[in-house]
Amino acid sequence: MAFLIEIKVPDVGNVADIDVVDVLVKPGDEVSLEQTLAVLETDKASMDLPSSAAGTVQELFIKPGDKVSEGTLIATVLASSEEVNVAKPQEPAQQAAAPAEATVEKTPEPVSQPLIVTPEPAPEILPSAVSAVAAHATPAVRLFARELGVDIQKITAGSGRKGRIVKDDVKNFVKKVMAESAVQGGSGIPAMPAVDFSQFGEIEEQKLSKIKRLTGQNLSRVWLNLPMVTYHDEADITEMEAFRVALNAEKSKDDVKITGLVFIIKALVAAMEQFPQFNASLSADGEKLIFKKYFNIGIAVDTPNGLVVPVLRDVNRKGVNELTAELAEKSNKARLGKLMPADMQGGCITISSLGGIGGTAFTPIVNAPEVAILGVTRAKMQPVWNGKEFIPRLMLPLDLTYDHRVIDGAEGARFMAAVKQYLGDIRRLLL
Amino acid sequence: MDTNPAINESVVHAEVLVLGGGPGGYTAAFRAADLGKQVVLIERYPALGGVCLNVGCIPSKALLHVAQVIHEVDEFEQHGLSYGKPSFDIDKIRSWKESVSKTLSDGLARLVKQRKVTLIQGTGTFTSSHTIEVKTETGVTTVSFDQAIIAAGSHPTKIPIFPHDDPRLWDSTDALELKEIPKKLLIVGGGIIGLEMATVYHALGSEISVVELMDQIIPGCDNDLVTPLYRRIKKQYQNIWLETRVAAIEKHKDGLKVSFEGKGAPESAIFDAVLVAVGRRPNGKKIGADLAGVNVDEIGYIAVDKQQRTNVPHIFAIGDIVGNPMLAHKATYEGKIAAEVAAGLKAGFDALTIPAVAYTDPEVTWMGLTENQAKQQGIDYDKAVFPWAASGRSLSLGRKEGLTKILCERETGRILGAGMVGPNAGELIAEAVLALEMGADAEDVGLTIHPHPMLSETFAFAAEMITGSITDLYIKK
Fold first, then answer.
1. pTM over 0.80
2. How far is A116 from chain B (nearest CA, A)?
3. Which residue in A127, A146, A147 is closest to B352 by CB distance?
C-alpha cells in the first residue's frame, strides 16, 4: 500500500520568510530518508531541508526564490507504508489522482465540445482576484494606485467605510513610503558613487550570499548606532596551556581535543557573573538596561557562505568536556551549513577568535543588542619581566569592544582584568 | 495584375495600427485616437463591428426578441389574451434584423470619420515587426506602424469529420442568416450560442434537438441556475441529450443523418439542418504573426500580459484571440487597456470578473465566483437563493421559475459571486458586478433601496437572506 506523504518545512525557530536557494529534486525522483530536498537560507544561515520520508517525489511546491516558513508544503512523496517515517499518511494515492480526471471533464469553458476535438485548455482571463485577498478598493482607486505605481495589496487598511481603501489612503501610503526612505537616506551619509571598474581591466560580478548581505546591513547599523570602544590587553596563559596539553594527552586518539577557546569561554562567563552589566542589553528606546540571568555565548565561525554565530547555551552550568563536544558539533554544523536558526539565537556576548590564523590585535564590532564582544588573536611566547629577569610566558592578546552607552572605560578595564585573572589561573574558576 | 499603381504601391504609416474592426478593435482604435494617436484600422468586411455586430450578439438579440414576443403572446392565451395563431413573414424579420446591424455599423462608420481614423478594408497579414500588408479589393496596401493592436477575433470551431460543404450543416453565422425554418433542427453543443439559436428556431416553429457532451447544459454555470432553463426547454424541445456526442453526420437526400454515441445516445436520425455550436477558435494563425515575431500557440491563441502586450513589446493583442471567455465586453475592456498603454498611460487588466449571459428563455447569467469554483477552491462562503416565485414582478410576467443567487465570503459578508435565472435576468447582473467591483458586502446591498416591484429587487432580497433581515420570505431559524 502506497501513501502520499506531505513534506513540510520543520520548526526552524520562529523565523518567517526563509529563502529557497536551491531545489535538489524534481517530480519522479527517488528520495531516501534524510536526503536533502532543498537548500534554505535565512538571514543568519543556510540549511539543508531533509526528506522526512523515502519514496518517489510526486509533486514539488517550491522553486528557488520562493519564501517559505514553518509548515510550508515542500513536496509530496509517494512512499510505501513500511517506509513511512515521520509524516502521517494523508490519503491513498489513487484518490489523489482522481480529482485530476474530474477537473479535466469539467472544462470551465462556456461552450461544450465533442470528444473528438482534442481538449483545448484556452487561456482563461478570469476572476482570480475575487476572494478575501483582493484589496477592498473600487476600480477607480485601483487604477489610481496603478498610475502611482503602488501595489494596492500593501495598503492593509483603508479609511473608507468598512476599511475600504480610498484615494487618500493611496496618497498617504506614497507619502509614508517617501518619508521612510527620506529618514533612511537622511542620516547625512552620502551614498557611495558607482564606479565602472571594467574601464580599468577585466572584472567579474558575483552576487553576495544572503548571509553576507544581511550581515553587512547589520554591521553597518551597529557601526552607526553604537559608540564603541576597543580595549586591548594580554593574558598569561602559560599554566592554562600546560593544563590543556596535559588533559589532551590523557585523551585517546578519537576524542575531541580541548581547545583554548573553551577556557576563554569559561573565563568570560566567570567575568560576566562578576560584572552583570556585560550580560545585558539596552532597551530599544535606550531608557532601560535589561539584565540577563542566563549565560549564552556566541562563537563567530567562518564558513564558506559567510560569518555565522552559533550560540552555546547555559555555559555557566557546563563543564569543559561538555563545552568542547558542543563547540565541535556546532562549528561543524556551521561549516556544513546545517545550523538551524534556533542554534543562532539568544546570545549574551560573542567571542571572535582569529587565533588559529594569527594577528596581534583587532577591533571587533559588537554583535548588538549584546553590549560587548571579545576578540582573540594568536598567543605568542614573550619575554615577561618578573622584577628580576625576563622569563618566557605564553601571552594571549585580547581585544574587548563594548558599547560605551552601557559600559564605562574603567568598567571595561576591570572586566578585562577579571578575564585575564581567570585565564592566568584557571583554578579561580572553581571559586 | 492590378491596374491601379497608386494604391498598389501605397505605403501608409500608423502610430497605432489596429487589426480587426470588431468591438475590441474599434474600441481600441477610437480610444487611441482620442488619446492623440494617429490610427489605422484594418477590417476585412465592408461593415464594421465584427462578429458581434454582424453575425453574433446583435442579430441574435434581434431574433431572440422576436422569439420572446411569440412566446409571451402564446403563453398569455391561458390568461385571456389571444391574437390567434401568429404568422411570420420571414423575409421581413430577416430584413429587420439586418437593419438593426446596419444602423449600428453605419454609426460606427461615422465615428471612424469623426475621429479621423484611417479605415482600410481588406485582409491584413503581418510582414515584419513593423509592417503589415493589406489585400484590398483594388490591390495591396502596406502599412508601417509604431505600435499594433491585434484584434483579429475567432471563428466557429469546425469538426473535421462533419460534411461542412453541405448547406444543411450550419454554424452560428448560417443560423443567423435565417434562410429557412427547418422542420427538424439538431443543435450540436448545449452552450450559450447553441441554446440561443434553439430559442429562436423553436419560436419560429422548428422541432429542436440538442446534443451536449457534458452532464449539463451551459457547462461552467452552476447547475442550480441552469435547472429552471433546462426544465422549461425539456418540455419545449423534442430532445435534449446530455453526455452524448455526435459520432457521424451523413448526407442524405432527405436530410442529414446523424448518429450518436455516449450515455444518452439515441438511434441515428435524419434532421433537416444541423447547427454546430461547439465553441470558437482564435484566428491567431491567420495573420502572419510569426513574421512579426509574435508567439501564437497550437490552437491560435496569443498570450498577453496585464497590459495586453504580446511577447513583442510594441504589439498588443485583445479579445477572442487572447483567450476565453470570448465575449465582446471582455474585448472592449481589453481594447481600451491596449490603447491606453500604447498611448503611454499606466493601465492594466484589473477587472475582478467578466459577467456571462445566456439570452435564452429564461435568461441565465452569472458573475464572479461560481459555487462550483468556491467549493473547488475551498472558500468559506455563505449562500442565499431567492426564488422569483416570491417576486410580484415575476409573477405578473406570468413566470415563477426564476432564482437569484448570491455568494458571500462568510467572515466578512463580502460579495464573491452572483447568478440569476429568469426572464430579463441578464439585465440584473450588472448590479452584482458593480457590487463586486466596489467591494460591497451583503449588508450594503440589502440596505440599498431597490425600486418595487422590479426584478432587481431580488438581488437585494438575496442579500437580506445572507444578513438575516429578509421579510419577503419566512426562513425558519
1. no
2. 8
3. A127
